[in-house]
Design goal:
Layout (H helix, E strand, L loop, with lengths): L10 H14 L5 E7 L11 H5 L4 E6 L6 H13 L3 E4 L11 H8 L1 H9 L7 E7 L5 H9 L18 E3 L4 E4 L3 E2 L7 H10 L9 H15 L1 H8 L9 H11 L11 H13 L12
Parallel strand pairs: 1-2, 1-4, 2-3, 4-6, 4-7
Antiparallel strand pairs: 5-6
Helix pairs in contact: 7-8, 8-9, 8-10, 8-11, 10-11
Bound molecules: guanosine-5',3'-tetraphosphate.
The site of guanosine-5',3'-tetraphosphate has 15 residues, from helix 6.
Length: about 280
């Protein structure tokens, strides 16, 4: 896309993450990867499997409160088939958080049995949280930590900056989550992340972004557009023409009656991100 070629990715971040993960990996029993339930594919780092070797993996579909529940259910099946443990949650309200520890216990059942046989019963499960920026890592850690936000003791082999946070269910979290970076080279991924606001949208052409979002919504969620913007499900036209229609229907006009598509774009993006159009997913498995 012409107007999107200025997106800058920072592969340097991945180098730092790679080092950090490699150092912490031997200390944890499992890795928990946070994905945005609205776009699990685009919020997933393709290097993840290579970075974490064969550590048991818990996929957390976060922001499930914003995503289409039917599609989220399909993603859960998808990741289960891949052999991962999966939970869905809303780290802002805390809904679904209670399933975190039981899912880990099930994922690590064999290992926990071995520990128990060796007399290491009650040994905490140690987990590292990974995810791209803004996916909700800090929110999740805060919710899981609850009243125990005060840090647990240092442990041998962990640098001073890395400490453990005890949760209420016998799970310990590395307090520094690994920041993964989204796929650098895929423009489609960049566009979808920008739609959710995960990527700063001032480096993108906002009207082009909104036009892309409108096209997607017109196909997948026509009723939502009808209800909120009076855009008929059978309306025809390009994404930009739909944006003009949105501007007209909302009375956003410049002098001479020209649709103010810039304002319409801001409105659409804000309202989509604020879940004013309902719970919407941008990707299916
Ligand atoms: P990060 O550490 O991975 O970078 O993400 P962080 O927890 O800072 O969360 C980024 C934003 O996403 C925050 O919003 C946070 O409240 C929101 N968020 C995280 N998890 C969920 C969720 O499951 N559901 C919803 N609806 N929102 C979630 P913010 O606008 O930056 O801050 P705030 O105004 O909410 O405090």
């Amino acid at each position: 896309m012409e107007d999107m070629k200025d997106i800058q990715w920072f592969p340097g971040h991945m180098t730092k993450t790679r080092r950090q993960i490699a150092k912490s990996l031997p200390l944890v029993d499992a890795v928990a990867e946070l994905l945005d339930a609205r776009l699990p594919g685009s919020s997933c780092n393709p290097e993840f499997a290579g970075l974490t070797h064969r550590k048991p993996r818990l996929v957390i579909l976060n922001k499930a409160d914003m995503a289409d529940p039917d599609i989220t259910a399909r993603w859960v099946q998808h990741y289960r088939k891949e052999g991962c443990a999966v939970i869905t949650c809303d780290s802002k309200s805390g809904k679904g958080i209670k399933t975190f520890a039981p899912a880990l216990r099930e994922l690590l059942a064999d290992q926990l049995r071995k520990y128990a046989e060796k007399g290491m019963k009650g040994r905490p499960i140690r987990v590292m949280i990974l995810g791209i920026p803004n996916v909700g890592k800090s929110s999740l850690i805060n919710k899981l930590a609850g009243r125990n936000r005060a840090k647990a003791e240092d442990r041998a082999g962990v640098t001073r900056t890395q400490q453990w946070i005890k949760t209420e269910d016998g799970v310990e979290l590395l307090d520094t989550p690994g920041v993964l970076w989204p796929k650098f080279d895929d423009q489609e991924v960049a566009v979808r992340l920008a739609m959710t606001g995960a990527v700063r949208d001032d480096i993108l052409d906002r009207e082009a972004l909104a036009a892309r979002l409108l096209t997607l919504l017109h196909t997948e969620y026509p009723a939502a557009l009808q209800e909120r913007y009076k855009i008929a499900p059978d309306a025809e036209g390009t994404g930009f023409e739909l944006l003009e229609l949105l501007a007209k229907n909302r009375g956003m006009l410049l002098s001479g009656g020209v649709p103010n598509t810039e304002r319409a774009a801001v409105t659409l993006l804000d309202e989509f991100r604020g879940v004013k159009l309902g719970r919407i997913s941008l990707e299916k498995p």
